[in-house]
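FAQ: What does the model actually see?

It sees only this:
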Amino acid sequence: MTEPDSSPPSGGCCRPFLVISSLFPLYVCVGALFGESAGMLPQLMEEDSLIPTSREEATWIASVPTIGTCIAATTSGSLSDVFGRIRMVQMAYFLLGMGYGIIGAANDFTLLVVGRFLAGVGVGCSFPANVYVSEMAPPAYRGLFLVLNPLLASTGLVYMYVVGVYLPWNIAALFSCLIAFLGLLLTFFCRDSPVWLLRKNRPDAARRSLAQIEGSANVDARLKQLQEIADAQRDAETQSGHNTFSLRVVASPTVWKPYLTVLILSALQNISGFYIVISYTVNFMREFHSTFDPLQATVAIGVVRLAAICVTSALLRHVGRRTIGAVSGFGAAASLLLVYWCLVKPELAPNAWTPMALFLAYIFTMTLGIFPLPWTMPYEMFPIKVRGTMCGVSFCSMYGLMFVSVKLYNTLLDNLRLEGMILLFAAGSLVFGLYSATLLVETHRKTLDEIEAVFAGKRTKKVDG
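And it is asked to produce this:
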């Protein structure tokens, strides 16, 4: 089988950038959804709110998108194989736009929940967007385009923090609705990926798709390469038959051990407080009773998280996963313990801004490893033959854990108070660091065979991370 040509296309990166930029509003809308509740809930819980909302109802508004995402995540991958990558992207845009539109027009609690749920389903349908990027981007630029996903999602979070905390929640939702439908409009000028089109025996459409992203030069040579890849994948699927994913396969240590690793990382990620802080930022910052404006603190958290994502994008390419996880976990735990010290002994804090600076340090260090590792490592750990299925199962489980943690916010706050929650988050971060440093299987700079051999219990030559 011919390896794909890694040389840049004749037209440079402009053509693929213009095509793939149709997905940029999608990433922004996805990030905005998970930051929406931070500014929305304080407004809804005010006495003169358009929709009077109790503390219990607020937890449902914050957590319900994860249910929709969990449901859609289990099927979006297989649906994209049937209907095409771009069709699932369009479905994601449509559901996000409808969800935001219903939120913006809502006049009762039920419509708010329905809108947030639909938008969550849209997030679940957006997962094939990364597949579309990997298949559309020329190999020379693929890494660059893929790293834009978390950067733009974090940009969406900052955008919603700024718009959501300073504008009425329904106006902020309508802004996001407009972004989603503008993105949907852009996708009608894009063709589906040539890889998917060739798998569907549509070579003429694949040729037009290649010409759109690479220009007319060398289209025949690239088409031949992709055809050989598609034929090899089809032959491998035929040889493996329909029993690729079975109970016997799930019972294999190369499958259940990576899945257990994902569950442990995700559970510790939630115990460390990442999604609670993201979902309830304004309310959580008010618990500090600081002289700092909670709204300004919320925007600062979004900006710090965006900066950390930029650093993380570089770290994941050059630093081992165990090192990243350990530094992130230990750094976040140390920052939180110092925050706790400032809360219980305020007279010992050097300055009034010290607790806030330490909390921002927690956000930064947590985003370096605690946030990205549970989401990126499934792609590296599972065997290729079950990777698609097990990644879907893993992400579904992770969103289930996220729902539980976000839903329990009031319960934790009532029973542990702010100081207790800070200690809980510190404990979760510390255990994440310990697990990463001692038990986490290193995947950086290891081949798929080496990773599979580690989970199978075979001895392999040590590769430094």
